Amino acid sequence: MAHAGTLEISNLSKQYRVKGEALPVLDNISLSIRPGEFISIVGSSGCGKSTLLRLVIGLENDYQGEILLDGKKVVGTSLERGIVFQEHRLFPWLTVEQNVAMGLLNADLPEAEKRASVQEHIELVGLKGFETAHPYQLSGGMSQRVAIARALVNRPEVLLLDEPFGALDALTRAHLQQELQRIWEAEGITAILVTHDVDEAVYLGDRIVVMEPRPGRIKRIVDVDLPRPRDRGSYAFAEIKDDVLAEFSDKPRPELLDVPARDSVSEWQFSW
């Protein structure tokens, strides 16, 4: 089982240069993520969600503030952090087994141990029997499973997910959300999910980080104190979902209707 990482983001700010002008993207982001925690990040387009993941994965180093994994500064990419993008980004000329093995390309492990880990993670994502299939022979959901296996095969401390199910149909997305929860629990690692889907964020997250745009800031953090597996049809689930959605509305939340009490049934008038 992988070691779950502790991630500490402190006073993180990021800007780009556009036509010679500074364009702030992230402003003073601070977030502590506990080992084994599942964090969902939601926000409108342009709030810097994906930029935040790029900084955590180490694809960019030009920023202000600190990103620490287990107390050590994040510098560049590392096998300690795996990522899954919205597009599966599989190599079309490689088989499922070979695509997953690409996650171990720079791992200092004996070949026998690499083969065992590849097979273990193909089984973990439910693709046993498809080892020799190529991406064109897989559905979109199956391809994303391969991408998840590739991100997990080197047993990272943190799994980052950037809209991993955004391109899938609703039924496939709901099924893979269930599968992702199972995989996360089986691996026991820290996970950070960026999504536009508030339902998905509530279903998967221990906490939901709500961001506001231009530049991206943390507006609010919502605890999701619901037992797993979560019932999407429950009142408690709907209440948290509505609470998060209200953060993106310009209108105040409507109050519940105050229905006057009646002393007896005879006071009601019925029309048949």
TrEMBL record:
Entry keywords, A to Z: ATP-binding, Cell membrane, Membrane, Nucleotide-binding, Transport
A GO molecular function held by the record: ATP binding
Record-linked PROSITE patterns: ABC_TRANSPORTER_1, ABC_TRANSPORTER_2
Domain ABC transporter: 7-238
Protein family membership: Belongs to the ABC transporter superfamily.
Xref: PANTHER family: ALIPHATIC SULFONATES IMPORT ATP-BINDING PROTEIN SSUB, TAURINE IMPORT ATP-BINDING PROTEIN-RELATED
Name of protein: ATP-binding cassette domain-containing protein
Lineage, highest ranks first: Bacteria, Pseudomonadati, Pseudomonadota, Betaproteobacteria, Burkholderiales
